[in-house]
Amino acid sequence: MGLSTRLLRRTPLRPLRVPAQHVALEGGENGRMQIREVPIADESIRLGQFLKLAGLAEDGGQAKILIEAEDVTVNGRVEVRRGRRLEGGDVIAVGEKVRLVSNT
Predict the structure, then answer these.
(1) Domain range for residue 61?
(2) Is residue 42 classed exposed, middle or buried when 0-12, 13-18 and 19+ CB atoms within 10 A define those classes?
(3) pTM value?
(4) What is the pLDDT of residues 7-16, one digit of tens each?
(5) Which residues are within 8 A (CB) of 97 and not within 5 positions of it... i.e. 6 or more apart?
(6) How many CA atoms lie within 13 Å of 91's alpha carbon, on the beta-carbon side?
(7) Which is the most buried residue in 22, 41, 77, 79, by most CB within 10 A?
């Protein structure tokens, strides 16, 4: 049994309550998916940290599980590196889409 299998058995995933702040409709109200924008103070952030900041993962352990399970996409591509550097404009998805907005 691999590490991620053991973690999944011990760590039940619970539904996350994601704040409705910073929500913008992409493309108007023609049925397109909403993309929530999440501002950061620096010009970049690591993927695992961003998942926690955006409320897509409750903690670092859950972020790691989501990434290892290939449930996370960055700009439409599956990402398996927790340390991947994200920059303003990147779109991260784990069930919902979130756009990273750099305040610098």
Answers:
(1) 3-102
(2) exposed
(3) 0.67
(4) 444 444 444 3
(5) 33, 34, 35, 36, 91
(6) 11
(7) 79
